[in-house]
Specification:
There is one protein chain. With 502 residues, this protein is of the alpha/beta class. It has two domains: 186 residues, Leucine Aminopeptidase, subunit E, domain 1 (3-Layer(aba) Sandwich), CATH 3.40.220.10; 308 residues, Aminopeptidase. It is built from 16 helices and 20 strands. The strands form four sheets. Strands 7, 8, 9, 10, 11, 14, 15, 16 and 18 form a nine-stranded mixed sheet that branches. Helix 3 crosses helix 5, helix 8 runs parallel beside helix 11 and helix 12 packs parallel to helix 15. It is elongated, with a radius of gyration of 24 Å.
Amino acid sequence: MQIRVVIGHPWEVAADLLVVPIVGELAFTGPLDELDRRSGGELRALATLGELRGKAYASVLAASGELPAGRLLVVGGGSADGFDRETARRQAAASIRRLAGRSAHTLAYWLDPVGAALGDVPAVAADMVVRGIVEGGFDPKTIYLADTDAAPPALDELLLVTADAGAAAAIAAAAERGRIIGEGSNTARRLANRAANDVSPQVLAEEARAIAEANGLTIDVIDEKRAAELGMGMFVAVGRGSDNPPRMIVMRSGPEGARDSQGRLIAMVGKGVCFDSGGISIKPSDRMEEMKMDKTGACTVIAAIATVARLAPGTPLLAIAPAVENMPGGHATRPGDIVKALNGLFVDITNTDAEGRLILGDAMTYAEQLGATHLVDVATLTGAVGRALGHLVTGAFATPDPWWGEVAAAAERAGERLWRLPLVQDYRSEMDSWTADMANSGSVEGSLVKSGLFLESFRTVPWAHLDIAGTSYYRKPFPFAARGANGTSLATLVELALGGAS
């Protein structure tokens, strides 16, 4: 897809389709009034019928009258007060998804209303709009189905229309940035959506190797024998029950020993449970098929480091993805087994379905051994976070406060919602073990906080944990996204890495 910045008014642009984004109450004043006049009053007529509204992500196709654009697509953005970067991205995604099953090669997007709603920052608008178009064009059905007629069209050209000639260069640069981040998000989504019989830990490692080679990254894949020799007792224990052995995937950007301009090396750690049956503590059968999504964190960090490499080659950065299958079987870890973690702690595995924290703990310790000075992990870790915060807000734990401030600022730039949860130290005693340093699970009360406390035991540097169990995939389609993995947190990780390198 070619992206061009067009300086001019929306009624001057020739394209198969012109997207008209509406923010706030529909008001026919200024350029929108002129656009309506030149369309022969089509927009006012639709508004009179009640078909044209400003409701978020609601859309309507309209005739274009004498305009050079073939058709108009008006897409609502909701109230002006609630309009933010996330809404701008989703509004754009909704526009391309509205065209599913239709043929459109050139799409023009009127950028100025979005830029004005985001504080007169046209470059930010371009970043979010292009990300939305790229992400909205992804449909997981194209992974396995040959019939893709219902998928959004693959555009040949996207025109960003603005009257602000002075912002053209900034808009063009931001648009390319948005395209690269959107493509990274789609890479993570494509991996996460693939079935468990298609993506084992070994296959995920092979996919990561191909991504590394394509983006100038180095990669080290640690097999189960080497992991045991290194002392990764928790990681090895989780993968013991499966015929598909575990793999610890380690990707690096920049030369070994390199640090960013602030003297830091950030490590992104992603949970990669390619299928989670719960192990001996087996899960209920209801919705167990969704447990192929338990590798989403790993897919996210694999795609994120590649995205950073495209935007800023050589940025010092680590991505570590512990990949396992958590299965029952004759060799599976049993409740009550005690294992030694890489950091030397003995852990009593009281619940084999609390496996994500086990593999993350060893991966975080290994990241520090490789020189990481700051950690952020991304994981579909607990069902509790979805019950607490739903599917729109990612739960977070972090320490110390300045590092949390950087992570939160990165999420804000990315247009993603985080909510910081407390690390209540008084709950640690509820994970005491009879015979080991700690148990991997405690009572149900405060279980979300206890998951954070467990992970905190495996870090000595600034750390943040993003629990994406509630936000990583959609169980139903939305106007702005298909069912399945949605790429959440990738943009936050990219913003965090690039912020640290600036």
